Amino acid sequence: MLTHPQFDPIALSLGPVAIRWYGLMYVVAFVLFMVLGRMHLKRRPELGFSKETMDDLLFYGMLGVVLGGRLGFVLFYKPMYYLYNPIEIFYVWQGGMSFHGGFLGVLVAMWWFGRRTQRTFWQVTDFIAPLVPTGLAAGRMGNFINGELPGRAADAATWPWAMWFPQVDATPLARHPSQLYQFALEGLLLFIILWVYSAKPRAVGKVSALFLIGYGSFRFLAEFAREPDSFLGFLALGLSMGQWLSLPMVIAGVALWFYFGRDKSGSAGPARA
């Protein structure tokens, strides 16, 4: 059985200012979004995006991630608690972000961005879909560094990489390092799939559909190794909240995949400036 390294949650201190690892991972995510976005521009110039629109996309995306992620956590995971403690909704430094909420926030932000730039919603989401998984990977690495959101108990003899998280368990207990599973699946593997698939013209909406299928499936699988939130536990059919929120993504992704696949000539063309 391995032991979590117990990293110092503060990555860098500059006088009274402390930069935490999780916050640093957000910076890494946004930087990767910009770098990969510019690479995507060069290989797919016919999509009609520019460096200037990339800056705007990042701004809208940041708003969607932060606002949607926080509100999603409040509404999906602890609605009654925040109903009686509404001021704590703004206590973001205490943690509490939801990917599914952030995802919905980004969708709203991209819809608004598309309206302002005269692009369809699917043109925008097809462009950003391959850029998202590396940000997810950075977030999961932040979870691992902090020793938070650990996995379920595991047999160390069967799973030699099982790990004791002293931040969670006072006495040694082998757990799945589920943060690393999610880092590998919904981060690196999903990035490779989407990056390769989006390299060539596809019917509008199919890259977005593939993201929904890929993320929803990988998250659903990883949740079998992840400890459910203590204040929720397991829900209907023994599934976690993360799994129940991922199922609609997979269903919608499959439906959209076949819907957009009907038009074989509808590859994503140039968007209007």
Keyword list:
mainly alpha, 273 residues, two-stranded parallel sheet
Rg estimate, integer Å: 19 Å
What is the count of β-strands?
Answer: 4
Helix run count: 9
| Largest sheet descriptor | 2 strands, parallel
- Count of structural domains: 1
Instruction: Tell the overall outline.
Output: globular
Elements, N to C (H/E): EEEHHHHHHEHHH
Quaternary structure classification: single chain
As a percent range, the share of strand residues is under 5%
Could you estimate the helical fraction of the residues in percent?
A: 55-70%
What does the average pLDDT come to?
A: 88
Sheet with the most strands: spatial strand order: 1-4
- What is the first-to-last residue Cα distance? 56 Å
Helix/strand/pairing class, anyone?
mainly alpha
Low-confidence segments? none
Structure description:
With 273 residues, this protein is mainly alpha-helical. The chain has one domain (2-261). The chain has helices at residues 21-43, 51-76, 79-84, 99-117, 121-128, 133-146, 178-197, 206-222, 241-261; strands spanning 2-3, 10-14, 17-20, 163-164. The strands form 2 sheets. Strands 1-4 form a two-stranded parallel sheet. It has a two-stranded antiparallel ribbon with strand order 2-3. A hairpin with a 2-residue loop joins strand 2 (10-14) and strand 3. Helix 7 packs antiparallel against helix 8 (206-222).
